[in-house]
Design a protein that fits this description.
By secondary structure, this protein is an alpha+beta fold. The chain has eight helices and seven strands, in the order αααβαααββααββββ. α4 crosses α5 and α7 runs antiparallel to α8. This is DUF2272 domain-containing protein.
């Protein structure tokens, strides 16, 4: 076989810079007197040079360098992924908001007797009413199993608290469940409406998901062209009238003194700073979800979990503008607007 016909000597056509990073080749330009321009002279001399061992290594080095430069150039011009903008609300179908309210009503009634759940009237001064338990043989066992399966199980990222200690006891001991479960109740409620983890941090601590809501909102406020409008928007208590589906949050009574010293501040930047201080001061805190507004009576109904060891519907006072009033039992400090459609 003639060495000149050896397939190893067939030159791979160099790339044409005008054709991009893939599948390119050299082309003659219109009007060139010699095919492929100056490369014709190189082809006439390649027979002499191609067989030398030094040139073989040099050719391999040149080819490797050319490939590396080509890949570097392609990587340099790769476009950055576009920022996630728009509105997080657009991810959800109409009816999600109503589904949330229906789930809350069903859970409240499930914990009650004769089709009615426990009501806590926080408009009055004095101790709240005791909880009314369903009239069955073993309400503690039944309700604790429901709390474990319906509220704790759907909440991820809680390996040490995914099961309640009281549900492993036989028989269960009072209180119904030894772990605080009001935050997982909120998480389970929002998950039942289809809320995604990208929009809400499902967590057994109210302070944890509230901090995440503040983080998302501040990121959007600082650069609205690079962040989505969040699904949950925090508002100062003094500037926003809540609506059904919104979250309203307070500290627990034992933490009230430490928190109230920092939350009675004007709205705006100082109010947001007070939220940080309040969240750092509180341990568990408590949030309810608003389910009804009675403007005529200036009352608001909100459903929450682990209120007197049950799912309770609380009656809360409003001012003339429909804004929540702080009480001894519920020192509110933030309202979170829920923008589910």
């Amino acid at each position: 076989m003639n060495a000149n016909n050896d397939t190893r000597d067939r030159r791979m056509p160099p790339p044409d810079a005008s054709s991009g990073c893939g599948g390119a080749r050299w082309r003659s330009r219109p009007g060139d007197a010699t095919p492929h321009g100056v490369f014709a002279a190189w082809r006439r001399t390649r027979t002499v040079l191609r067989s030398g061992p030094t040139m073989v290594g040099l050719r391999h080095s040149i080819i490797g360098a050319a490939v590396a430069l080509s890949l570097t150039a392609c990587a340099a011009v790769a476009p950055e992924p576009p920022p996630e903008t728009g509105d997080a609300r657009e991810r959800y179908a109409p009816g999600a908001h109503q589904a949330l309210l229906a789930w809350l009503d069903g859970e409240w009634k499930a914990f009650g007797a004769r089709g009615r759940g426990h009501v806590v009237d926080l408009r009055r001064v004095g101790p709240p009413e005791p909880a009314r338990w369903p009239e069955d043989a073993a309400p503690e066992r039944r309700l604790c199993e429901h709390i474990r399966s319906a509220y704790w199980t759907p909440v991820t990222g809680t390996p040490d608290r995914s099961e309640l200690a009281s549900s492993r006891q036989d028989p269960p001991q009072l209180p119904v469940c030894s772990n605080a479960w009001s935050a997982v109740f909120i998480s389970a409620a929002l998950r039942s409406a289809g809320v995604q983890a990208r929009d809400f941090r499902f967590d057994p601590l109210h302070s944890a998901y509230l901090k995440d809501i503040l983080r998302r909102y501040r990121a959007y406020a600082a650069a609205p062209d690079r962040h989505q409008i969040p699904l949950f928007v925090p508002h100062p208590l003094e500037t926003y009238a809540p609506r059904p589906g919104d979250l309203i949050c307070a500290t627990r009574r034992g933490e009230a003194d430490a928190v109230l010293r920092v939350i009675f501040l004007p709205s705006g930047t100082r109010a947001q700073q007070s939220w940080d201080a309040a969240l750092d001061a509180m341990d568990f805190g408590h949030c309810d979800i608003v389910v009804e507004i009675d403007a005529r009576r200036r009352t608001m109904s909100a459903i929450g979990g682990n209120v007197q060891d049950t799912v309770s519907r609380s009656l809360l006072p409003l001012d003339a503008d429909g804004r929540p009033l702080r009480t001894i039992e519920r020192p509110w400090f933030i309202v979170v607007e829920n923008r589910l459609p």
